[in-house]
């Protein structure tokens, strides 16, 4: 696992310090750990991190301070990798963050559902490397608001799409669903066809587009 430079924004002091200690224990550098949106923007611009980990609700209003800070950073550094670590599914934020981040690492994890330290650290690295990591509950809540596109998929295809959103490989999806790799490949091909994704694009890019298409509706 490579060494990253991480800037962290979390208003809960104990959680913030715990995350700093965890990141450093895994060999990553945390040049700044802050508790509000403006401080996040300043720290990210000053330290040029590989990835920013941010909560959504922070002082003073505990509404969308993290969202506004990320918007500002995206305008200044479009390629900045962002991992949201929140207690809630902020649907507007998730739509914006996951729907318009082509080429930039993106993640949205729920604090209460992070159950494995090593998996969490792997997710941080994946986002920093330009990948996407989304908690299945985030996907479920976003897709629940957009029923029309889902009508085009079978129940099994929806399961496959949900596992794709978690960043799983074809083999990992096959193991989770207890089917063959060939069956998974067939389901994914059907999903891409129903979403009218261009076959000329690389397969990995089409997979990301498939997830983003549903998150955006």
What secondary-structure arrangement, pairings included, does this model have?
Blueprint: E1 5-9, H1 13-25, E2 29-34, H2 37-47, E3 51-54, H3 65-76, E4 81-86, H4 91-99, E5 106-110, H5 117-128, E6 132-134, H6 136-144, H7 147-150, H8 155-165, H9 170-177, H10 181-194, H11 203-216
Parallel strand pairs: 1-2, 1-3, 3-4, 4-5, 5-6
Helix pairs in contact: 2-3, 4-11, 8-10, 8-11, 9-10
Keywords: DNA-binding, Phosphoprotein, Transcription, Transcription regulation
Modified residues (4-aspartylphosphate): 55
InterPro entries: CheY-like_superfamily, NreC/VraR/RcsB-like_REC, Sig_transdc_resp-reg_C-effctor, Sig_transdc_resp-reg_receiver, Tscrpt_reg_LuxR_C, WalR-like
Characterize the structure shown:
- The model has no long low-confidence stretch (mean pLDDT 85).
- The protein has 11 helices and 6 strands.
- The protein folds into 2 domains: 5-140, Rossmann fold (3-Layer(aba) Sandwich), CATH 3.40.50; 146-216, Winged helix-like DNA-binding domain superfamily/Winged helix DNA-binding domain (Arc Repressor Mutant, subunit A, Orthogonal Bundle).
- The two termini are 35 Å apart.
- Helix 8 crosses helix 10, helix 8 packs across helix 11 and helix 9 (170-177) crosses helix 10 (181-194).
- Helix 1 links the parallel strand 1 and strand 2.
- The protein has a 6-stranded parallel sheet with strand order 2-1-3-4-5-6, sandwiched between helices.
- It has 217 residues and is an alpha/beta fold.
- 54% of the residues lie in helices and 13% in strands.
- It has helices at 13-25, 37-47, 65-76, 91-99, 117-128, 136-144, 147-150, 155-165, 170-177, 181-194, 203-216, and strands spanning 5-9, 29-34, 51-54, 81-86, 106-110, 132-134.
- One of its GO terms (molecular function) is DNA binding.
- Residues 146-217 form the HTH luxR-type domain.
- The modification 4-aspartylphosphate is found at residue 55.
- Keywords: DNA-binding, Phosphoprotein, Transcription, Transcription regulation.
- InterPro entries: CheY-like_superfamily, NreC/VraR/RcsB-like_REC, Sig_transdc_resp-reg_C-effctor, Sig_transdc_resp-reg_receiver, Tscrpt_reg_LuxR_C, WalR-like.
């Amino acid at each position: 696992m490579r060494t990253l430079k991480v800037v962290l924004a979390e208003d809960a002091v104990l959680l913030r310090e715990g995350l700093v200690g965890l990141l450093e224990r895994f060999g990553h550098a945390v040049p700044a750990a802050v508790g509000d949106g403006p401080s996040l923007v300043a720290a990210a611009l000053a330290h040029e991190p590989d990835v920013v980990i941010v909560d959504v609700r922070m002082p003073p209003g505990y509404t969308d301070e993290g969202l506004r800070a990320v918007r500002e950073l995206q305008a200044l550094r479009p390629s900045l990798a962002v991992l949201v670590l929140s207690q809630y599914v902020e649907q507007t934020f998730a739509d914006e963050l996951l729907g318009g981040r082509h080429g930039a690492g993106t993640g949205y994890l729920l604090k209460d559902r992070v159950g494995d330290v090593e998996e969490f650290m792997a997710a941080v690295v994946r986002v920093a490397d330009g990948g996407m990591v989304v908690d299945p509950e985030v996907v479920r809540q976003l897709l629940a608001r957009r029923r029309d596109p889902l009508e085009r998929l079978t129940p099994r295809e929806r399961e496959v799409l949900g596992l794709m959103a978690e960043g799983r490989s074809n083999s990992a999806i096959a193991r989770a669903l207890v089917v063959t790799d060939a069956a998974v490949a067939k389901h994914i091909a059907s999903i891409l066809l129903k979403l009218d994704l261009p076959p000329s694009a690389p397969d990995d890019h089409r997979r990301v587009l498939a997830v983003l298409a549903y998150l955006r509706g």
